[in-house]
Amino acid sequence: MKITLTQWEGFRNLKPRRLEWAEGLHLLLGPNGSGKTNILEAFHVLTGWGSLKGERVLDLKSWSDPGRGTFLAAWFTGEEELEVKAGIGSRVITKKGGSSIQSSQLRPLVPSLIFLPNDLSLVEGSPATRRRLLDRLCALLFPVYALRLHEYGRALRQRNAALRQGKNLAATAKVLAPLAAWIWACRLAAADLIRNGLSEAGGLMPPGITVELKRGSRGFEDLLLDFWESLKAFQNQERATGVCPVGPQRDDLVIRYGEREVVRCFSRGYRRRVAVSLLLSSGWAVERKMRRKPVLLLDEVMAELDHEGREKLISVLLKTGWQVFATTAEACTPEWPGRTWSVNAGRIEER
Ligand SMILES: Nc1ncnc2c1ncn2[C@@H]1O[C@H](COP(=O)(O)OP(=O)(O)OP(=O)(O)O)[C@@H](O)[C@H]1O
Ligand SMILES: [Mg+2]
């Protein structure tokens, strides 16, 4: 899919604007605090995801003119033509062609993938950073995934509370087990797709990188049995620590280069390349499974990549044929082979 037209009003620091976007690569260039990330956030909201920093919805409304309505709109073309509008009040209300649509239904129609500066530390960061990558891909591939993950999180909090209060744990286990098995099945499928996609990152990183889901369990093949057996095996630890040590909340995506973990044998710059390649692989997974080209939102993705790394990234991006919006605070070298937009104090103009 491609974003062909957008409109925003009263959104963060962005001045009201209607803009046409061509396909291909777009670079948003501007000083710190000019509104580059806010533009990506507008696209993020319009493609069915919430605010970037998990803030209150009200923070999306312009501070300088709080009385004004906050409104976003986009027209998408490509595999399908559709119009999306988002009204922002105490919550975000999205509409497709005039009718309300849930964000979980909107996301697969206009699949977007975002890469934030923190994702540069995907390889050496905590397992939670890598689970986030998997969860975002799963939320696109399996529309009820986000809901099931939310239900799982709620049941897990109930179990941990029951543990601390010395209450019976059987009831929460019955709720958790099928949800855990389902989430694991989705994550295994997503990890497989990411692994296959990595081969397409051609040149951005050395060949031979593999990714594998390491489940927070004993690792039995039958996922339901795995949950029950692991719970039994770790019951003493669970009682002693007061937190459930089994389940998707303990999963990790292990990234290896041959026999070694990438985090141990790659330089910082190469770990950055692997991190970007993992996002690109998610994009290929989306294209292959959903038969829709994703829109990529890349925030400061070129930071810390050397000249050669940037060149390779740009050539891989060009090859995908996807629409890409990338931000940078400094002029891009090598030359950007697409449109460049200047962002200044919430105003955006093509250069
Ligand atoms: N609700 C809001 N209303 C008005 N301004 C806001 C709101 N939320 C954030 N801002 C302002 O928007 C400005 C631009 O933020 P943004 O993160 O998009 O900048 P940026 O161009 O990405 O900068 P950097 O290069 O540092 O990442 C910030 O100065 C911030 O204070
Ligand atoms: Mg920014």
- Topology pattern, helix = H, strand = E: EEEHEEEEHEHHHEHHEEHHEHEEE
- Strand-pairing-aware structural class: alpha/beta
How far apart lie the N and C ends? Answer: 25 Å
What ligands can be seen in this structure? Answer: adenosine-5'-triphosphate, magnesium ion
Largest sheet: 6 strands, antiparallel
Strand percentage lies at 15-25%
The pLDDT mean sits at: 95
Global geometry = globular
- Return the domain count: 2
What is CATH's topology name of the largest domain?
Rossmann fold
Helicity, as a percent range: 40-55%
Adjacency order of strands in the biggest sheet:
2-1-4-5-6-7
User: Which architecture of the largest domain per CATH?
Assistant: 3-Layer(aba) Sandwich
Query: Count of helical segments?
Result: 10
* CATH homology-level superfamily of the largest domain: P-loop containing nucleotide triphosphate hydrolases
What does this structure look like?
- The chain has 351 residues and is an alpha/beta fold.
- The chain has two domains: 1-111 and 292-351, P-loop containing nucleotide triphosphate hydrolases (Rossmann fold); 122-290, RecF/RecN/SMC, N-terminal domain (Glutathione S-transferase Yfyf (Class Pi), Chain A, domain 2, Up-down Bundle).
- Helix content is 40%, strand content 22%.
- It is built from ten helices and 15 strands.
- The protein has helices at 36-46, 103-109, 127-141, 145-164, 170-198, 223-233, 235-241, 262-265, 268-290, 307-320; strands at residues 2-9, 17-20, 25-29, 70-77, 82-88, 92-96, 99-100, 112-115, 209-214, 252-257, 260-261, 295-298, 323-328, 339-344, 347-350.
- A six-stranded antiparallel beta sheet has the order 2-1-4-5-6-7, covered by helices on one side.
- Strand 12, helix 10 (307-320) and strand 13 (323-328) form a beta-alpha-beta unit.
- It starts with a strand and ends with a strand.
- The model has no long low-confidence stretch (mean pLDDT 95).
- The chain binds adenosine-5'-triphosphate and magnesium ion.
- Adenosine-5'-triphosphate (ATP) binds next to helix 1.
